[in-house]
Amino acid sequence: MDESAKSRAAVDGAWRPAAKALVAELERRGLVAEVMGHGAVRVRNPAGEPDPDDPRGQAFAPGLRQEVVCRRLDGVSWWWVWSGPTRNSPPELEPLCPIANAAVAVERITRVLAVPFAGSPGGCR
Q1: Strand order in the sheet with 92-98
Q2: By mean pLDDT, which of 5-9, 36-40, 81-85 is the weakest?
Q3: Superkingdom of this entry's organism (predicted)?
Q4: FRET partner for 87 with CA separation of 20 to 30 A, picked from 60, 76, 93, 119?
């Protein structure tokens, strides 16, 4: 097995249980999260969603959403996924924390998706 295949195997074996644990903890904080394929977790804060009765808000407000992915680089880590500078650019990745440090990941993701003064449960205020 070449190094690239070994790296993928390590990530494949480690990320799914860590992703499920991350989703469970994010949901305890009042966020909505789901495990996606390829080592990704997509998270959103329902308090940041546009009013369903506001067609303009529905059309122009994307809500508060964030994706993180598990990748190998000096260990297996969670990485922020940010939009590239243009519509056609690939996403940019920024280190979040080691995969084993779920508490740090949950705290940082919750902080990024926080809505100040909103009444959302579990710390997403």
Answers
A1: 32-35, 40-45, 64-72, 76-82, 92-98
A2: 5-9
A3: Bacteria
A4: 76
| Contact present, 78 and 66 (Cβ < 8 Å) | no
Task: Name residue 67's amino acid.
Answer: E
What are the residues facing 95 on neighbouring strands?
Answer: 79
Q: Name the burial class of residue 73, with classes exposed (0-12), middle (13-18) and buried (19+) by CB atoms within 10 angstroms of its CB.
A: exposed
**pLDDT tens profile 99-112:** 989 999 999 999 99
Q: Phi, psi at residue 87, to the nearest 5°?
A: -60, -30
- Beta-bridged to residue 70, according to DSSP, are 78
Q: Which residue has the tokens 């991350």?
A: 22
The residue whose two tokens read 């080592």 is 39
CA distances from 103 to 3, 29, 43, 118 (A): 30, 12, 15, 23
Q: How is residue 110 written in tokens? A: 């919750």
Q: How far is CA 119 from CA 30, 88, 113, in A?
A: 10, 36, 13
Helix (H, G, I), strand (E, B) or coil at 48: helix
